[in-house]
Amino acid sequence: MNITLALLLGVLLDRLFGEVPRWHPLVGFGRYAAWLEKRMNKGSSRILRGALSWTALVAPPALGFMLLAGLEHAWIVNGIALYFALGARALREHGTDVARALQHGDLDEARRRVGFLVSRETADMNEEQIARASTESLLENGNDAIFAAIFWCAIGGAPAVILYRLANTLDAMWGYRNARFNEFGRIAARVDDVLNFIPARLTALTYALLGQTRCALRSWRAQASSWSSPNAGPVMAAGAGSLGLQLGGSAIYEGVVEERTALGEGRSAQGADIPRASRLISRGLFLWITVIGLGEALVYFL
């Protein structure tokens, strides 16, 4: 039952403490990644330089945790590694802060709070746009910050979950299709796509099973392929359909209005839908731990 114990430990630590307020390893990693990018992202062969930078950042921590995998109580190491990769409590708290500000009619505070969740411009958002952006971010990050981390921890323990979290962090920093990162961050973006391919579809299926299933599956099948991200598309389409909402649509990035595919079916998002999205993710987390635990117990007793 080592896998289940590791998952329970990681989830419990995240539930009790949330993100480490000071000296979080990912903060230090991000600073080093930014420093390295400034020195490597120049000249010719930027794709190769990006690949070398990615390897230099990700390989040493993953290999280091691989050496710990042989310890007698490795499940403790796996659980602690999962804790540093999880963002369940932080995600829920960010969503709650936005929903509370909208409930109190404080649009300025809601715009400020949603800025912690999304990369789009928030200064002129109205209530519906704030609710839509928050719900989209919760659904997408449900995969990135929770379910994919659990998947890789269950598959390969601490080395796999650390590799995933660092790769996902580099994609968030470098995986942009703009002049600065289109070449240098290409490997980071492609690796993240590969690592998230299966978890994203399991997350989409989880959302579908725990809400309006037919609507979620219909939205996933019809809309996901037209979304810009091959993994965010299924997750967000199924999540929107499960909640009976229509998400997507226009958003402003760096001063440019981007028209995005509509996702889901139903009415526009409202402030009260933000907690609904959080509850959907929480039910999904409970389902994953239950299924993995039952599966491991079955294998153990057989």
Walk me through the structure.
By secondary structure, this protein is mostly helical. The protein has one domain. Helix content is 71%, strand content 7%. The protein is built from 11 helices and 3 strands, in the order H-H-H-H-H-H-H-H-H-H-E-E-E-H. The protein has helices at residues 2-17, 25-40, 46-68, 74-85, 88-103, 107-114, 127-174, 186-209, 213-223, 232-243, 273-301, and strands at 245-253, 256-264, 267-268. Strands 2-1-3 form a 3-stranded mixed β-sheet. Strand 1 (245-253) and strand 2 form a beta hairpin. The relative contact order is 0.14. The model has no long low-confidence stretch (mean pLDDT 94).
